[in-house]
Design a protein that fits this description.
Blueprint (H helix, E strand, L loop, with lengths): L32 E6 L5 E6 L7 H11 L8 E7 L2 E8 L2 E8 L4 H23 L6 H6 L11 H11 L5 H9 L8 E4 H64 L1
Parallel strand pairs: 3-6
Antiparallel strand pairs: 1-2, 1-5, 3-4, 4-5
Helix pairs in contact: 2-4, 2-5
């Protein structure tokens, strides 16, 4: 062997044709925090965070603000504006299922996960309130304390394990079973939603103020009308009353 020449370099074997590589960061791209909340006011029924990733407190606060403003939003939507993450939500029968995903996570798979959570939660409602002709929505609307279904977070954690790797056979099977078309799901910006919510709240406050002012005006108008009537008919009425009393007194005396 000639001097200066080392062991020949062996090239790494090329991947098999058709092999599917796991995308980098796929394990951290799954739903980092998942919420189930009441749609009419955003009351959180259960919240589950992925402890393998640290969700900034600001984004959790954004999520809670968003849940309170979804009543007039479309039933399914992707909400952008959370940095490198995105909110996906699905509202069904007065309940909102929402999770924070990495933007690289497949959108169809994210909604398939939310669909699974909805199915599991509906089974939980049956266990909690019974089966048959039960109006689960009315039961949910009477809940007063948040995190009423906190024990359900175990089922969410279990479901997340099947979606953690988007290239796994279980995840792909869920994707095939789910008929949600990503192109048909609306997109929105979180800042626009917050501004719209502030505008609606401002309009609501102005409407309330206007009703209060209207009530005050009606009350004041009634008082003024009574005062005007007294000024116009008060003196003649008093004179007439005195005259009637004098005549009555003389009549009974005589």
């Amino acid at each position: 062997r000639a001097a200066g020449f080392g062991r020949p370099h062996l090239a790494a074997p090329a991947p098999r044709a058709g092999a599917l590589e796991r995308p980098r960061g796929a394990l951290a791209a799954m739903a980092q925090v998942t919420f189930i909340a009441r749609a009419m006011d955003g009351l959180i029924l259960v919240e589950t965070a992925d402890h393998s990733s640290q969700v900034p407190p600001q984004q959790k606060q954004q999520a809670k603000q968003l849940l309170r403003k979804l009543m007039n939003m479309p039933p399914r939507c992707t909400v952008e504006g959370a940095g490198a993450h995105v909110f996906h939500y699905n509202m069904v029968d007065g309940v909102c299922y929402m999770a924070l995903f990495d933007k690289s996570y497949p959108k169809n798979l994210a909604f398939a996960f939310l669909e699974d959570i909805k199915r599991l939660f509906q089974e939980e409602l049956k266990r909690e309130f019974g089966t048959g002709s039960v109006d689960y929505r009315s039961h949910i609307e009477t809940i007063e304390k948040p995190y009423y279904f906190i024990k359900f977070d175990r089922q969410i954690t279990k479901a997340k394990a099947e979606y953690r790797d988007p290239t796994s056979s279980k995840a792909l099977q869920r994707l095939n079973d789910n008929l949600t078309e990503a192109s048909s799901i609306m997109r929105a910006n979180i800042d626009e939603i917050f501004k719209r919510g502030e505008s609606l709240e401002s309009v609501g406050r102005k409407a309330t103020d206007l009703r209060d002012e209207s009530k005050k005006f009606k009350s004041m108008t009634g008082k003024l009308s009574f005062a005007t009537m007294m000024q116009k008919y008060g003196v003649p009425a008093v004179i007439g009353l005195v005259f009637v009393l004098i005549v009555s007194f003389k009549f009974w005396k005589g």
